[in-house]
Specification:
Layout lengths: L4 E4 L21 E5 L15 E6 L13 E5 L2 H15 L3 E17 H4 L11 E4 L3 E2 L5 E2 L1 E18 L2 E10 L10 E16 L5 E16 L1 E14 L2 E18 L3 H16 L1
Antiparallel strand pairs: 1-3, 1-4, 2-3, 5-6, 5-7, 5-14, 8-14, 9-10, 9-12, 11-12, 13-14
Helix pairs in contact: 1-3
Length: about 270
């Protein structure tokens, strides 16, 4: 009995349909996509508002199809076309983490140098740092967009008996991303809030708050630091060595291979039906 590749939704109870293939090689729940078209009356209600790819246990009955059945895909070409449409709409991409920078610092000293007392007069700790070893990956470095408040200026004006006094405070915050990330395309926007109050002594206080928000793009780089410690003892003197390794990992983006994915799924279908 033929077991075709089908498009389906969950049942009304939110479960995988019982009529999916039970073959251990079969797949289900692949390449999810919205079942309803934007701006149109919904054809499917929750939990049946997502369409998946799977392998059915048999061909659909021409007299009627079971709950959750949407359609079948009969050829490899049609499968690739379908996956390409789903992936293009969803923004499929391949993200590969690549170690792009490694540097090492070695800190050496005797135990007294590591824990010096007030009377310590030794040579202290010796630190040796290697040059960072760098590399690159294939594709484009993944980037993200971010925004945060980077500046707040508060002007407080107090008016009493016709005399005004103004004080200004400024608080600036650096853009918070990984130290190895590159920040670019910075733009700013300001919002202003003004509050005026008068106390029982007729002292009028006006507070003007200007908040600056920065929008920016930054590269997807993560820095991790690890440390190892070792000790050696020679002639009764113990030397401790700490090795600190700093690793930068960059995520690279390449195009999704729709043809390879269609081949993978089609080969499973063919094996089950051979």
């Amino acid at each position: 009995m033929s077991q075709p590749i089908i498009k389906y939704t969950l049942t009304k109870q939110g479960r995988q349909p019982e009529w999916l293939s039970s073959d251990s090689r079969a797949f289900k729940g692949q390449h999810s996509a919205p079942a309803n078209k934007p701006g149109k009356l919904p054809r499917f209600g929750s939990p049946q508002d997502t369409i998946y790819l799977g392998i059915g246990a048999g061909e659909p009955d021409s007299d009627g199809t079971p709950d959750g059945y949407v359609g079948k895909i009969a050829t490899k070409s049609a499968l690739q076309t379908y996956i390409t449409g789903i992936g293009t709409a969803a923004g499929y991409k391949v993200v590969t983490p690549i170690i792009t920078g490694v540097s090492t610092s070695v800190i050496i000293g005797d135990l007294e140098a590591w824990n010096p007392g007030e009377e310590y007069s030794g040579s202290g700790l010796t630190t040796t740092t290697s040059d960072k070893v760098t590399s690159t990956g294939t594709g484009n470095i993944q980037t993200f967009e971010g925004s945060q408040v980077t500046k707040v200026v508060v002007e407080t004006t107090t008016k009493a008996s016709g005399v005004s006094t103004t004080t200004t405070t400024t608080e600036e915050t650096a853009i918070n991303v990984d130290s190895a990330s590159t920040v670019s395309a910075i733009s700013t926007s300001d919002s202003v809030g003004i509050v005026t109050t008068t106390n029982p002594e007729d002292v009028e206080t006006t507070t003007k708050t200007t908040t600056t928000t920065s929008s920016f793009t930054y590269t997807d780089v993560t820095t991790n630091t690890s440390k190892s410690t070792s000790s050696t003892t020679t002639d009764g003197e113990t030397t401790r060595t700490d090795t600190v390794t700093t690793t930068e990992t960059t995520n690279y983006v390449t195009d999704y291979d729709y043809a390879a994915e269609a081949t993978r799924l089609w080969d499973i279908h063919q094996a089950i039906n051979s």
